[in-house]
Amino acid sequence: MGLPQVDIHTDIHCVTSWSKLGTSWRGVSLDSLFENVETSCRFTTAHSYGGYTTNVPLQDLLGGRAWVAWEFDGEPLERTHGGPARLLVPHLYFWKSAKWINGIELTQDDVPGFWESNGYHLHGDPWREERYS
């Protein structure tokens, strides 16, 4: 909470074909979290409480494209929606925005997470309809 907080206004897209337009979030940019990190890794694995994981290329988390969000629509993020904090990667399908985030691991390889190991696409771009592998 001591890092710079930003407001995010974005659309979100679910792999089951629904979208929610104009959502409002507050959180910390992944650019702030990775500001002093030097790495040759090109991939990440997001880890959540409860054992959930999802893989995200590092380039999809940087450049103002991803946040650790703790607020939705002006209120603290509800537990059922990933509170107290979730990863927010709105340009990818929402399964990449891991609820209850507790860590981001840098990896050399693109290691499939939970849904990716069960047939979902490794990347998950909604504009390319990257739903399933």
Automatic annotation (TrEMBL):
Entry-linked Gene3D superfamilies: Oxidoreductase, molybdopterin-binding domain
Pfam families on file: Oxidored_molyb
Domain of life: Bacteria
Coiled-coil features, chain-numbered ranges: none
InterPro entries per record: OxRdtase_Mopterin-bd_dom, OxRdtase_Mopterin-bd_sf
Residues in Oxidoreductase molybdopterin-binding domain copies: 3-115
Name of the protein described by the UniProt record: DMSO/TMAO reductase YedYZ molybdopterin-dependent catalytic subunit
Species name: Arthrobacter bambusae
